[in-house]
Amino acid sequence: MYKDILDVYAQALTNNYGGEELIGSEISLLNMYCYEGNALDNVGYIFLDLDGDGTMELFIGAIGGDEFVANAVFDFYTYQDGHPVLLIDSMERARCYICDDNTLVIDGANSAFDTEYSCYSYANGTLTEIEPVESAYQQLDYTPFSQYGA
Question: Residue ranges of the domains in the chain?
Answer without folding.
Answer: 3-92+135-147
